[in-house]
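Lab meeting, item 3. Inverse folding demo.
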């Protein structure tokens, strides 16, 4: 059964935080569910979020709310395997690419054919912002 698996994330990291101001724009605001807080990356591309679960998960949907003008143009969700995991023979891939709109509204992306694993990396290859900054108010992950 598919459900939000965001609270099951064990460890997460981000590429950068605007001016290293973790108190105002830190990674902890990615998954807090509050509309008045956000993660704000520093400038430059690519930016990324890496997250892991204690056990193998399948990601079926990503729900992301960017700030308009600071949304990603091109994104990739990647399943990252350690040496003990064997993804061979499943017919699925370890990457899913998508292209968000430059919008303030929550956007839902149906993730197709991504291999289940414990660790994932969400990469923002480019941004609508001239300096490459990404601002995200909310992220939810639907899976099993």
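The presenter then showed the designed sequence:
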């Amino acid at each position: 059964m598919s459900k939000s698996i965001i609270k099951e994330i064990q460890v997460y990291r981000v590429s950068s935080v605007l001016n290293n101001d973790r108190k105002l724009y830190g990674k902890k605001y990615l998954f807090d569910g509050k509309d008045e807080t956000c993660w704000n990356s520093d400038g430059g591309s690519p930016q990324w979020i890496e997250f892991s679960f204690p056990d193998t998960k399948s990601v079926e949907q990503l729900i992301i709310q960017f700030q308009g003008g600071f949304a990603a143009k091109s994104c990739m969700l990647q399943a990252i395997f350690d040496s003990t995991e064997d993804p061979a023979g499943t017919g699925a891939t370890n990457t899913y690419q998508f292209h968000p709109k430059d919008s303030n509204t929550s956007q839902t992306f149906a993730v197709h054919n991504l291999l289940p694993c414990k660790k994932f990396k969400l990469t923002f290859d480019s941004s609508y912002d001239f300096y490459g900054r990404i601002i995200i108010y909310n992220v939810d992950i639907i899976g099993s």
